[in-house]
Design a protein that fits this description.
mainly alpha, 2 domains
């Protein structure tokens, strides 16, 4: 069988190496080369989606297993269920759009080459993480991903980009090192052998309650930092404010989903008893994240920080759905991971286009732009409405599934979290009002309309949100089986106590 997943990991990594290897005289076309690599990657992702068997979406498909470090039981094991499929499609879609969004950045060919190579390397790690079926491989990729991200944040962005990069790295390293302790402890609880870290071999292990809970917490902490959840979220606004919008779009829309993805596929699947034990506290933290993120978003003047706090709120809804442990809530959370990627990725990019025109993310510097750039204003409004989960746009479906699915388990939490939906309307509509309505400042009168390239970046995301808003079954069909398996795992363990 053609090793399509290995190819999808290797292709962008090789593309990054190619860009770095190009002599200086040949770097004029690096953007086209990077875009071509990501276009091929997207074509492979589409092929995955077409060939994926939704009837067996809970099993790992396109599986590959090769001995890697047999002395410790580590394998190069890749495979995807329906959740991993959607995440790989999301990563493959947003990466070329991020490259297009920053097409005219970096006049210096050397900086441009470095930036694009780091983007491609990040894509390779994203695909590898979402496809990893070996816990040790997952951990290695999880940590290695920090290298390109550190340089993307620290080398390209605002005045405090180095501070933001160090803060991001420290938070991530602390979580990763604690997770490493959990990985080692899990090895000693497992069956051993040459495939000791395969998730299939680690599912359903019998271990003491104390061991299971401690290992669960080691994994969960790393994922809660990545997600990000309150109170471990403070690195995100700093990064969003100082990194390039294209970098932040990929970071929040795709890479941070590794947190919720890990909660679903590792924390809950491998440690169901501990997950149920911790669920009440996690649900409370998730609801706090929903309200806290929304309230802080309302108070932001910097649009990039505003969008980052909306994501803190939305991630809270995802975590709420995961730890409610119902079929509908888990399907909704997994779907929200994809839909939030479309919505927030588009929101960061459209804000980036606005900043590129006027050099400031300060809301108070703008006003009356809908009279000058009506297409820009309309596109911004639709994307903003997706962030408040307007019916007809895809985030609405996933958000309502989480709230309805979790209601029977956490009524009070869902009622409080629903307030976050109301607050979302405030931070989106108030921002639109300040930026696009009212009198037009003199400095804004020459604002350029969306260019063809910018429309090619934003409109496919808007179109996909509309399609999935009216036809959500396209995505839900891939999530039903893996969600049912997760619910069954938790239920079986509960019945066995």
């Amino acid at each position: 069988m053609f090793p399509i997943l290995t190819v999808m990991v290797a292709l962008p990594a090789l593309g990054a190496g190619l860009l770095w290897a190009l002599p200086s005289a040949s770097r004029a076309r690096v953007r086209e080369v990077a875009l071509a690599v990501t276009a091929v990657e997207l074509a492979l992702a589409v092929a995955l989606f077409i060939q994926f068997d939704t009837a067996t979406a809970g099993t790992f498909q396109f599986s590959e297993t090769y001995a890697w470090i047999p002395q410790i039981g580590a394998s190069w094991a890749l495979g995807i269920n329906g959740i991993g499929l959607l995440m790989i499609v999301l990563a493959s879609l947003l990466t070329p759009l991020a490259i297009l969004a920053g097409w005219w950045e970096d006049k210096d060919p050397a900086r441009r080459t470095h930036y694009l190579a780091l983007i491609l390397l990040s894509q390779a790690f994203m695909v590898g993480i979402f496809a990893a079926r070996d816990v040790f491989l997952f951990y290695v990729l999880f940590e290695a991903m920090l290298i390109p991200l550190y340089f993307l944040i620290g080398s390209f962005g605002g005045a405090q980009r180095r501070y933001a990069a160090v803060k991001f790295l420290l938070y991530s390293l602390v979580g990763g090192l604690i997770m490493l302790v959990g990985v080692v402890a899990l090895y000693f609880q497992g069956p051993g052998g040459e495939q000791a870290f395969l998730t299939d071999n680690l599912t359903g292990l019998t271990m003491s309650s104390t061991a299971e809970r401690l290992i669960f917490l080691a994994f969960f902490l790393a994922f809660a930092i990545k997600a990000p959840m309150v109170p471990l979220h403070t690195w995100l606004p700093t990064v969003a404010e100082n990194a390039r919008p294209g970098t932040t779009a990929l970071l929040v829309a795709v890479l941070d989903k590794i947190g919720t993805f890990g909660m679903l596929t590792l924390c809950v699947a491998l440690f169901p008893n501990a997950a149920r034990w911790a669920a009440p506290v996690i649900i409370v933290l998730a609801v706090i994240s929903v309200i806290y993120g929304a309230l802080l978003a309302i108070g932001q003047v910097n649009m990039l920080r505003l969008v980052s706090f909306t994501s803190v709120s939305h991630f809270g809804i995802m975590v709420l759905g995961i730890f409610a442990f119902t079929q509908t809530s888990i399907e909704g959370s997994a779907l929200y991971m994809f839909n939030h990627g479309l919505s927030t990725g588009a929101l960061f990019l459209v804000v980036g286009f606005l900043i590129h025109r006027h050099g400031t993310p300060d809301v108070t510097a703008y006003g009356g732009l809908q009279k000058v750039v009506p297409v820009f204003a309309g596109t911004f409004l639709v994307i903003g409405l997706s962030a408040l989960a307007l019916p007809g746009l895809s985030p609405f479906v996933s958000e309502i599934m989480v709230l309805v699915g979790a209601f029977s388990v956490a009524k009070a939490g869902v009622i409080v979290a629903a307030v976050g939906v109301v607050l979302a309307a405030l931070y989106v509509l108030l921002t639109y009002q300040k930026v696009f309505t009212g009198p037009t400042p003199e400095a804004m009168r020459g604002t350029r309309e969306l260019t063809l390239r910018e429309r090619l970046v934003l409109w496919p995301l808007v179109g996909l949100m509309l399609v999935l808003g009216f036809l959500p079954g396209i995505a839900i069909d891939t999530l039903r089986e893996p969600s049912a398996d997760i619910v069954a795992t938790v239920s079986i363990e509960e019945a066995g106590e």
